[in-house]
Amino acid sequence: MQKRVIGECPICGHDLFVTKLECSHCHSEISGKFQLSKFNYLSKESLYFIELFIKNKGSIKQLEKELKVSYPTVKKMLNEVIENLGYKVETPDDDDEGNEEILNRLARGEISSEDALKMLKE
């Protein structure tokens, strides 16, 4: 059984690195200090969210349906993944930009007026 590569030491919490690679065909081995991807440091939940995000071609509307959560919840989850990858999340000074996005989605026909009202109230 193959195990998932972890990026954090379960004992002290510091970053881990790979020291040995092996070919699955000829069994050649390469030793050294190999850097892991940013994605190796993400939680299983974050990786699952990214997988669904890609599967749904970045459509927050589709993610809402698949995850059975609200638009703000999907945005929160996305922002957490962005931050965990080491990027800064730009946040509006107030809720105007979020409200504007809801109205834009309504105008594009992505959500119903009832959904828009519910989201605006949240």
Keywords:
122 residues; mainly alpha; two-stranded antiparallel sheet
Order of strands across the widest beta sheet?
1-2
Distance between the termini: 45 Å
Largest sheet: 2 strands, antiparallel
Number of strands: 2
Query: What is the share of helical residues?
Result: 40-55%
Radius of gyration, CA atoms, in whole angstroms = 20 Å
Percent of residues in beta strands? 5-15%
Total separate domains = 2
Number of helices: 5
Report the principal-axis shape.
elongated
What is the helix/strand order?
EEHHHHH
Structural class: mainly alpha
Question: Average pLDDT across residues?
Answer: 88
- List low-confidence stretches: none
Overall description:
By secondary structure, the protein is mostly helical. The protein is 45% helix and 9% strand. It folds into 2 domains: 1-41, no CATH class; 42-121, no CATH class. Strand 1 and strand 2 form a beta hairpin. Helix 2 (60-67) crosses helix 3 and helix 4 (96-107) packs antiparallel against helix 5. The longest helix has 14 residues, at 71-84. It is elongated and about 60 Å long. The mean pLDDT is 88.
Short description:
The chain is mainly alpha-helical and 122 residues long. The protein has helices at 44-55, 60-67, 71-84, 96-107, 113-121, and strands spanning 18-22, 29-34.
Helices and strands, with pairings:
Blueprint: E1 18-22, E2 29-34, H1 44-55, H2 60-67, H3 71-84, H4 96-107, H5 113-121
Antiparallel strand pairs: 1-2
Helix pairs in contact: 2-3, 4-5
